[in-house]
Amino acid sequence: MIPLLEMREIVKQYPGVRALDGVTFELRAGEVHCLVGENGAGKSTLIKILAGALRSDAGTICINGAQVDIRTPSMAQSIGIGVIYQDPHLVPELDVAENIFLGHEPLVGASPFIDARRMHDEANSILARLGERIPTQTRSSDLTVAQRQIVEIARALSRKVKVLVFDEPTAPLTGRETENLFRLMGELRHQGVGIVYISHRLEEILRIADRITVLRDGRRVVSVDADGVTIPQLVRWMVGRELSEEYPVIDREVTKEVLRIEGLANARLRNIDLALHRGEILGVGGLVGAGRTELVRAIFGADAITAGHMLLRGKPYMPRDPADAIVQGLGLLTEDRNRLGLFLQLSIRENLSISSLLQYTRRGVIDADAERRRVAEFVDALRVRPPDSELRVDTLSGGNRQKVVLARWLAANSDVLIFDEPTVGIDVGVKYEIYVLMNELAKEGKAIMVVSSDLNELIGISDRIAVMCDGCIAGILPRSEATNGAVMTLATAFAAIEGAHA
Amino acid sequence: MKCLFARFGVGVALALELLFFGILSPHFFTPDNLLNVSLQISITAIIAAGMTLVILTGGIDLSVGSLVAISGVLSTSVLRMDAPYTLALPIAVLAGAAIGMGSGFAAGVFVTRFRITPFIVTLALMTIWRGTAFVYTEGRPVWELPESFAFLGAGRVAGIPFPTIVMVIVFFVVHIVLTRTRFGRYVYAVGGNVEAARLAGIRTSRVLTVVYVISGGLAAVSGILLASRMNSGQPNAGLMYELDVIAAVVVGGTSLNGGRGTVVGTLIGSMLIGVLRNGLNLLDVESYVQQVVVGAVILTAVLLDRMRSS
Question: N or C: which end of chain B has fewer CB within 10 A?
């Protein structure tokens, strides 16, 4: 049988590194083929070559047995290749139908005018095919991430897509949205579309994959039928060695209260009561949009607070801005490292020391030696790879970038550390390292808050889990009672009530 | 060649340019001519040092040309008052500097507090100050200044023009500020990613405001030097300077998106354009043709820089 897509012996060479070293990848019509590997394994490079965003140095690509030459993204689209990114960038001011048909709008006859009615009709019928009901007049800036992905899928379908690539689509989605996405993928597969699926979430992969291809260091390790593959097996292929446990053993002592929050409220939060202790890892769960990020931003002084009060180490605490919060010992590892956490064009050193410059400045002048020494200490202690503090931070992998941000707060002597989605887009191996670090920091007596959409992670590392729903704390579960079911029940508590009323 | 360029960027272009004019014109490499070039570029280069800071934060300051006029007009008016020169001069300089820095402060407030884009804010200030300079002087230059005032713009210390000395000091200080101080680091951080900077604990509004104050202040310094050199306060002084200044900064390799660039690059950029003008003059190239050549060189320099960074 001729495969729908065949990428043969693809090579991509960058200065000093061979990103792809003769990778072969086959996709059949109507299958979900998962592509897994650690960051830097070559997944994104392979997809970029398929999507026309990069050109390979050697190798061939065939669609239905016929060789094609994909030089630009628009060529990729025209031969039926579509890519759904984690956070699709639609044109915010255009509505759903306009975004779906962007670049190939139906026209009135041979005129230059757009046939708006036909465009909306066709958009509706594509969405209906997907079993979705998004009003086609909605401006895309008003859509959720999940809805934007669906619009992106509809856009691909409007171009008669044959191969659809999903690049870590579920990272920003809630459990329910993820389920829906999987249903959609099943639908597409049924219609004969070949699906390439990339994700770091191995449970997901084993659930939906027909076949799996594992990449490591730019080479294909294996391509197998997904039946019978286990997570440990997958990890072994990805990492090339055994990983003993998923989460570190919790052996720390929760002691006295550091932060107390009473009746906190703002535009997105209502009546939040919460306490955080030394030595504790407090998980914050809930669906995306429940107010988790808003809560940590408010505590950190990044968003305005309209009511309530807080006590930090027993003293009233009401930060004017993040600078104020940092001086008082807080540190926030933001949700989107690259957009909110890092200065991508600056070096590891400059990124790491930015919040603690006061320590090594005298009359405004930085003591370069002191700064370098201090930075080197942290690069060493957290095992940032490569360990060269003068490298630009955008040359690092996701996990190492996260370490740099963490080191920034450790250098600033923060003892209340807030992690917002700390392991999104991070390799299995480095993930464990981050958990170990968090555990150690808590052991040293720091207080840690972790927001995560990954339920297993939340349950695996937290002493307690505060579950949010609709801007409120729906409940707090101690470790002994924290199960997937219990968290999800609380996370959807109010939604269920609203549903009952409707 | 390509390798050289990768390391030294526009510096190579400047060296080539010096070589080119040195060969073609016997008068080019004389001390007199080189000092003359330094004097010619000093006025806009001083402003460009401040503009570099603004552009590094991702902003722009279009008001600098008009600030040259208003500060020149204001300080020369102070000098015409009936006061002893030793007293009048400091007051005149302070008045000029105050209006430049005050304008920069206003720009900073509009940009940070009211969130109006720097382009619009400084465009408005540009026309406001130009208009004010004409209204204040009723369109006439401020003449009859104390003779000793001419020293600032035309005097020499050990043979070196005073504005050149000011320029060297300004660039040295701004370079130190950018590379060695906390404030300098914050300028790069704010320009690179303003939201990340805020979340890293940088008071971004303060950094931005200070940057516009410095830019306005340096524009005023240039305005006073220029008024001294012309021995009059001209309401139409510094017309279109903002464009020359931005060109020098951009040719020097500073990104208009912010976060990337150096003030040393700006100095080289200023010299590249200044040397070109001087060399073309020595070769008797007609001034209209000069404009075409300067424009072409700006494009080429930026293009080469783009190729280098990609």
Answer: C
How distant is the Cα of B19 from the closest Cα of chain A, in angstroms?
A: 34
* Cβ–Cβ below 8 Å for B192 and A322: no
Helix (H) or strand (E) holding A14: strand A5-14
Contact yes or no for A342/A405 (Cβ under 8 A)? yes
Fold classification of A255-329+415-502 (topology level): Rossmann fold (3.40.50)
Q: How many domains does chain B fold into?
A: 1
Both tokens of A337, joined, read: 């490292």
Domain range list for chain A: 5-90+143-239, 255-329+415-502, 342-413
Instruction: Return the amino acid letter for A140.
Output: S
Right CATH number for A5-90+143-239 from 3.30.10.10, 3.30.565.10, 3.40.50.170, 3.40.50.300?
Answer: 3.40.50.300
A501 contact partners, CB below 8 Å, separation of at least 6: none
Instruction: Judge whether B205 is closer than 8 Å to chain A, CB to CB.
Output: no
Domain range enclosing B85: 32-239
Partners of B183 on chain A (C-beta within 8 Å) are 364
Note whether B185 contacts A327, CB cutoff 8 Å.
no
Query: What does the pLDDT profile of chain A (502 residues) look like in tens digits?
Result: 789 999 999 999 877 678 899 999 999 999 999 999 877 788 888 999 999 988 999 999 999 999 999 999 889 988 999 998 877 878 989 999 999 998 888 999 888 899 999 999 999 999 988 888 899 999 988 888 888 888 988 998 888 899 999 988 887 777 788 888 899 899 899 989 999 999 878 888 999 999 999 998 889 999 999 998 988 888 888 877 665 567 888 778 888 999 999 999 999 999 999 999 999 999 999 887 789 999 999 999 999 999 999 999 999 999 999 999 999 999 999 988 989 999 999 999 999 999 999 998 989 999 999 999 999 999 999 999 888 999 999 888 888 899 999 999 999 999 999 999 998 878 777 888 899 999 999 999 999 999 998 888 899 999 999 999 989 999 999 999 998 888 888 887 765 444 444 3
Q: Which residues contact A157 (CB under 8 A, 6 or more apart)?
A: A126, A129, A130, A188
Comparing CB atoms, the residue among B180, B183, B193 nearest residue A343 is B193
Could you tell me the sign of the dihedral formed by the alpha carbons of A62, A63, A66, A67, in that order?
Answer: negative
* Tokens 């003068």, residue located: A390
Which positions in chain B touch A323 (Cβ < 8 Å)?
Answer: 201-203
A323:B181 CB<8 A: no
Q: Which residue of A has its CA nearest to B196?
A: A340
Shortest CB distance from A365 goes to which of B180, B198, B200? B180
Say whether A255-329+415-502 and A5-90+143-239 share the same fold.
yes
Q: Is B259 on the interface with A (CB under 8 A)?
A: yes
What is the complex's ipTM, to 2 decimals? 0.87
User: Could you tell me the pTM of the whole model?
Assistant: 0.82
